[in-house]
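Researcher: Here's the sequence for the chain we discussed earlier.
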Amino acid sequence: MKKMLPILIVMTFLVVIFLGTIQVQAETTNDANVEITLEGPTDITQGTRMLSLTLRLGNVVGVEEGNVMAFDTTLEYSSALFTSVSVIEQNGWDVTYEDSTKKLVGIIDKGVTNTDIAQIVFTLKDEITPGAEGTIKLNNFTISDDEHLSKTIEEIKKDIKIVQDLENPNLDQQNQAPNETENNNSSENNNINTENVENNKPIEQEKQTEVVATGNSNPAKGLEVEETATLPKAGLQNLIIIAIVVISLMGIGSYVRQKSIKLK
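Model: Thanks. This is the structure I predict for it:
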């Protein structure tokens, strides 16, 4: 019994040390804390095509920097505002997003506090009216390291609202009725063309009347020139023919007269 006493004391001492170590580890795990934020604008101007939010690792308590860190979360967003999502990794994080499951996961070999994890880029739908609202959520965001940290944040939420473009307040009306404006412009152009045609008719009629009455238009002048040029040619030909006939008759008369003299 006396020989067993030292052994029992040593075993008791080892158990106390072991339990103390477990307690210290448990306290370290319970005290470990991490800050995760989703940063970016909440009011989106109408006509904006892209919205970029920053997933950021903030202060970390109870965990040494340089440890392996990983996270897992499910992305939820309003389909009435957004059509697609893409992810841009930051500061050495390996981040992937699966659209079919909406799962967003990431890992880094050496985590550093107060750094950006990734840029999450949302594509907005066309022609969203001002006042439309929606949300972007990261549900059950779980982050851990290889030693002490294991924390789950139930929800990280971002409220989004579409506001009117103050520099172009009529943008919504322009988007809603572009065809009406085009139709109005087309109708106005048709009316103007019709008025021009109607206004030009009297002028054309006056011109035609003037051409017939005065003969001062180009076609009438052409006719006058052609007739004037033709008549002198016809008269000249007739004169030449008459002259030839007269000369012939005179020659014949002279010949007959000479013959008569010789016969006498």
